Amino acid sequence: MNRRSTALLSLTALLAAGLTAVPAGPAGAEEVETIRNGTFDSGADSWWTSGVTAATTGGTLCADVPGSTTNTWDAAVGQNDLTLVKGESYRIAFRADGTPAGHSVRAVVGLQVAPYDAYHEVVPRLSVSGDSYAYTFVSPVDTDRGQVAFQLGGAADPWRFCLDDVSLLGGVPPEAYEPDTGPRVRVNQVAYLPRGPKNATLVTEATERLPWQLKDAAGTVVAHGRTLPRGVDPSSGQNVHSLDFGEHRRSGRGFTLVADGATSRPFDIGTEAYDRLRLDAAKFYYTQRSGTPIREDLRPGHGRAAGHLDVAPNRGDGAVPCQPGVCDYTLDVTGGWYDAGDHGKYVVNGGISVWQLLATHERALHARTGDPDALGDGTLALPESGNGVPDILDEARWELEFLLKMQVPAGEPLAGMAHHKIHDEQWTGLPLMPADDPQKRELHPPTTAATLNLAATAAQAARLYEEYDPRFARTALTAARTAWAAALAHPDVLASESDGIGGGAYADRNVTDEFYWAAAELYLTTGEKEFQDHVLASPLHTADVFGPVAFDWAATAAAARLDLATVPSRLPGRDRVRQSVRAGADRYLATLKAHPYGMPYAPEGQRYDWGSTHQILNNAVVLATAHDLTGSAKYRDGAVQSMDYVLGRNALNVSYVTGYGEVHAHNQHSRWYAHQLDPNLPHPPAGSLSGGPNSSIQDPLAQAKLKGCTGQFCYIDDIQSWSTNELTINWNSALTWMASFVADQH
What we know:
Blueprint: E1 32-33, E2 48-50, E3 53-57, E4 60-65, E5 76-84, E6 89-99, E7 106-111, E8 118-122, E9 132-138, E10 143-151, E11 159-170, E12 185-186, E13 191-192, E14 199-203, E15 211-215, E16 221-226, E17 228-233, E18 238-244, E19 252-259, E20 262-263, E21 267-269, H1 272-287, E22 320-321, E23 330-331, E24 345-346, H2 347-366, H3 391-405, E25 418-419, E26 421-424, E27 441-443, E28 446-447, H4 448-465, H5 470-489, H6 512-526, H7 529-537, H8 557-566, H9 574-594, H10 612-630, H11 633-646, H12 700-705, H13 729-744
Parallel strand pairs: 13-21
Antiparallel strand pairs: 1-11, 2-5, 3-4, 4-11, 5-10, 6-9, 6-11, 7-8, 7-10, 12-14, 14-18, 15-16, 15-19, 17-18, 19-20, 19-21, 22-23, 24-26, 25-28, 26-27
């Protein structure tokens, strides 16, 4: 899983004492005020200021905030040494206004000492909709080093902030969270293909069949029928019916479905949206690039300075040392993609992501419906556009060159292996632009899993770039061979579960699948018997690799199987390989047909995993591949229908793709797509996929609001919910592949 943490950057150096635990008390036993002098009747006693000039008048604290500060924490007012009790529900309340009106304040309850974790934060716009604010949250820790801070910096011009009646009341009743799920008719809010499947889900208490109507934008009924009762859906706890309106094939915009007195959100019937989504999903990667400025003219609203180029305050990626005791050299590991909402770069997750982008291009070369020009040169508005190379290969190369830099140099211990990851020494807070990251960067130890990710993707790259840059193709193949040999020599150097400070651990205790994958890619590129023998001898070659989740960063056997089935080769027994893909697709198709929400995903006990949206899409990739192999319409329709869930046909009635659908995720966990915390920063770009429901709800916000959630309801569109609402490069690679497939099914 992609374990993340959020943190609050230090606002003041007033206190340097360590974290001290306090005894836990019963949650909600009685209401206890934590703030001292919250009414400012005693002047500014107990309050500190930083970067502002402040004074109290008539029981109100007012601060003159300078203009031209860079960060929100450059100007602040706060109170330290607050006691928080783990599991206790708190209400943070205050009155505030700003002159001129419209300024935002970032109000944070967090830890005043390292690692400066944030437990709750909000960013209201002052003097716009009243001046009284109140929010409820649950403390995830016991501490007597808590802090309430009001961050005021980041404005271009000076302004005045006034504060009164600050309260942090413990023991209040927890705030009930009821998501707004909108109309009871749940549809793909983006588009259905004219000649594709068209299904919807109705939430209703009725047990008998009900009439439905399909209306066009003018309100004219253009189709009608009756629902199919499905009973209680275990993934949501809802009693639901299915609606099938696939016989209507006329294109148009603004259709709605009406049933049981409810009208769905609008949707189109057509192909245009998928042509656009194919591009937007792939364009996501340019804005994730490290080591280069993101050009505003290429990504309006998302331009930013280059991150981690040894320009202060960055420590930079130009000469990154290892963690203490790991190595005595430094590496230039500039470039690559930031993995997710933090500033880390990870070989194991970069590997599966770049493989899937390359596989998107490779499918277009071999599939009967493939269109290599759809992501060709000039399609993605990249700095490299116009160089005669397909843009999707240009984008993938940005990550590939970083992966090559992570290889241990010749002459060093573990030469040829790949370092597992590089990221900050400690977790940083939100928001934080890549160019503003002040943390020391470190290389983490090499691992067998990372080495095999490098071998697999570099081998794949060697065959795909040969046409465009033979020298790069040879470099990639040499690196792949070197990595393969190093992995054979060191087959059990595994990442640690505990190595999750400053970045995700990405621990994988079984690398049999990575050996199979790397051998498969090396064989498909070289045709050499050595790699063929490894493929045929792998216990996974004849195993059923299509479980409840087909593949992800930690389970890559199916990635090998899909390429062995689709990339031309003379592999003995290739027909059996292709048959295994069809068998896997049949299983996912059966799951989809049995599911009232029409998706090829039904985890045991309805325990949705981290990044469930991309797991659904990866299962759909197997269905789509079976269609490419057989031409069978049932697999095509299953793959296409799988997109419905991601685009709005789900229990929460939300599209998990930013910018697509009437109601869509747009507050994903990110340090620079952080509009929710700083109105001066953007939302994620259109085409960004949220991770979606995660039954484990590891972050404090999800734990406070989603406790006891069922399957599909384990999600909240909030930047602080890093376990349900993160964005990552491997989730968008699944969206890129599937959006491309659907766009090809005109």
